[in-house]
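haha ok so turns out i had the wrong file open the whole time. this is the CORRECT one, sorry everyone. sequence first:
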Amino acid sequence: MRVVWVAMLIAVMTGPMVAPAFAQFTPGFRLNEGKQRSEDEIARDKENEAAAKAARSKIPDAKQNSDPWATVRPETAAKPKGKAATAR
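then structure:
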């Protein structure tokens, strides 16, 4: 009787770990395999692509200067003074 209980405990403990592996091999579950597209679907996809291309062309270009700290920094950088700056 004890062997049966141990076997059931092992089965209950390993069941949740093994279940995801079985989900990958479910028979009869195929994504778009063997499905033929109709002429209407192809035409609709072409229209959607044309509309998307037209919408993308309406988006303005990004600004060249996108530095958020431009107004905080001084216009000219402070130049070091002394002999170290002139000697090269």
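Residues 46 and 52 are 10 Å apart (CA to CA).
again sry for the mixup
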